[in-house]
Amino acid sequence: MDDRRREMLRGTPLFGAISDAALDLLLSLGKPVSVAEGEHFFREGERGSSAFLLETGRVAVTRRFQDRDHLLRELAAGDFFGEVALLDFGPRSASIRALEPCSGLEISARALRQLSETHLKDFALVYMNLGREVSRRLRKADERLFQALLDKAPAAKGWERETS
Predict the structure, then answer these.
(1) Which run of H or of E encompasses 40?
(2) N or C: more exposed end of the chain, with fewer CB within 10 A?
C-alpha cells in the first residue's frame, strides 16, 4: 500500500488514530481523482456522498451569492473537504474549485460502510472524529458571525457590566 498516501490520510483530523488495517481498506476503496486548474471537485447544491483528501494542489472553497462566487477560504495538500456529506447526504454547501492542477483521494460513504463491517471500532472513531471536526468548524463559523455582528451593531445600552 502507498505509505505516502497512508501517512497523509493519517495526518487528517478524521483518520488520525485508526489502525493501519483500516487505513489500508479505505485506501483500497478510495478513488484517485485529478482535477484541472479552474475545474471543480464539486459544486454547491450538488448531492454529496463522499469526501476528499487533497494530495496535491490548492483549491478555493466558494459560496454563490447574487450571481457571484465568494471565497470562503483556500485549502492545500493534506486538507480534507466535503465531509459533511458523509453525515447528511444533503446538497453540498459550497463549491470546491481547483486553483492549480490537483490530485486527491475520494472517500465515499459506501467505503465507510464497508469499514463498519470489518473494523467497527475504527468506523466509530472516524465518525467521532468527523463530529469533532464539524463542531470545530461550527465554532469558528459562530465566532466569525459574532465578530461580524459586533462590527455592525452599536453596543447595547445596559448590557455592559461594571467592574468593581
Answers:
(1) strand 40-42
(2) C
CATH number of the domain to which 145 belongs: 2.60.120.10
Q: How far is CA 17 from CA 81, 114, 127, 130, 143, in A?
A: 18, 18, 12, 12, 28
CB 134 within 8 A of CB 57: no
* Sequence-separated (6 or more) residues with CB below 8 Å from residue 75: 54, 58, 59, 61, 81, 96
Q: How confident is the model at residue 10 (pLDDT cuts 50, 70, 90)?
A: confident
Q: Is 140 among the domain residues?
A: yes
Structural domain includes residue 156 = no
CA dihedral 51, 54, 55, 57 (to 10 degrees): 150
Confidence (pTM): 0.83
pLDDT in tens, 80-111: 999 988 888 889 999 999 999 999 999 999 99
Q: Which tens digit of pLDDT belongs to each residue from 18-67?
A: 999 999 999 999 999 999 999 999 999 999 999 999 999 999 999 999 99
The DSSP bridge partners found for residue 63 are 70
Indicate the number of domains in the chain: 1
